Amino acid sequence: MKVSQxxxxxxxxxxxxxxxxxxxxxxxxxxxxxQRKKMTMPGFRPGxxxxxxxxxxxxxxxxAQAIENVMSDNLYKFIEDNKIKVLGSPLANDEKTPKADFxxxxxxxxxxxxxxxxxxxxxxxxxxxTSYEIEPTDEMLDKFIADTCMRFGKVESPETVGEKDMVxxxxxxxxxxxxAKEGGLDINTTLYVERITLKTIKDKVLGKKKDDTFxxxxxxxxxxxxxxxxxIRKKQDEAGEFASDxxxxxxxxxxxxxxxxxxxxxxxxxxDKDIKDEKAFxxxxxxxxxxxxxxxxxxxxLNKTSEELVKNVKFDLPEExxxxxxxxxxxxxxxxxxxxxxxxxxxxxxxxxxxxSKIAEIGDVKVGNEDIINYYKTELLPxxxxxxxxxxEEQKKEREAHLDSVAKNMLNEQEQTKQVYNYLFDRxxxxxxxxxxxxxxxxxxxxxxxKEVSPETAAVAxxxxxxxxxxxxxxxxxxxLF
Length: 482
Description:
By secondary structure, this protein is α+β, with helices and mostly antiparallel strands. It has helices at residues 21-38, 51-81, 138-151, 199-205, 218-221, 225-232, 236-239, 263-269, 278-312, 319-329, 333-341, 343-363, 369-380, 393-410, 414-436, 446-453, 455-477, and strands at residues 2-9, 12-19, 91-92, 108-115, 128-135, 154-156, 166-173, 186-192, 213-216, 246-257, 438-445.
């Protein structure tokens, strides 16, 4: 077996693999003997078919496979022995490789194009970046606390319908004569009173009791198409065309009474924190919100920083080879078309992978099974296996052992584990960037963050808010249509 290499372009080389009969003969004979053991033919005992017949039937296919195996093994051994940092994977050079006749020939030559990773210096200390620390506005914090109080509140069944109640009942679609429409809606559903946007309809509902019936137009009551579709149990496109009057008969009323801000609530929400008053509770809630926002800002930091590094760190790429490699490894014509149309973006993606590898070297970034198990145990699973009030030491040990067992079993969920691996790897890369680069920390609230990172999104959001305010004003002034 002979393997040789010669440069044939920028960061590319031509690898020649010469295979002789002695390189694969033994393997062919072994595979044919194994094939003979499994063969059954009329007139011969199992496993006793003459070898001449075995060779005639399977010889060429077995030979071709053996040659491919030995050629591939030695190609990658050559790459490993010569410490070639391959970019992508070797591609067969069909123009230089002679057409093989596996039946008649014994010696074969194969050529492969191989691309190497570029060598370059990366001094992260020369690069700058901005990191955003997102703080909630008072309005956001108030809403978060209100939602928390509601989540830990209690369910009641009041006599009459109030502003924030859930009303369960039976909905019947009516025809033009005010009678039940044949083939029309006849369903049980739930009406959330605070979602009713038209005041005249809301007034019809407020104060009603169990078994009361009222008539209204769902399409007028619920302007949000998603809410309307859910209420009438139809798809969005069908809900958009629904304009009928309906009768709604109340079967039950439920009211969620929010929990009061007191020590009982503080202990339920934050078991591990010694919270004594509302100020400390608000601070803990603020910290929760900031943690929730942190992942958003971290994602933006990594995305933006990667874009800047790809743009500013210069190194050569074997672009023609990489285009061939991308097309060769794509699985569909649609994917190939996408590569042709967005080649620059694909090249930027490859540049970032190379930079990311270099950053991982700088920070000695590694993610192993222990890291993934620890993530499951400390960040993902605890909310599913919370500590019980007055937990004993023995109970704590049992819970932690169960957590450990579940976390280890979750490693078998390959798709999820791959996602966790990528998330933890990105998190460690972000830590290296923060440590090595000149990072300016900017404190903003969520609205300011959106305006900073995506002015277009902020403009759309402002238009939607203005539109909702206008619609709400018009609805409140609209005269009764009934």
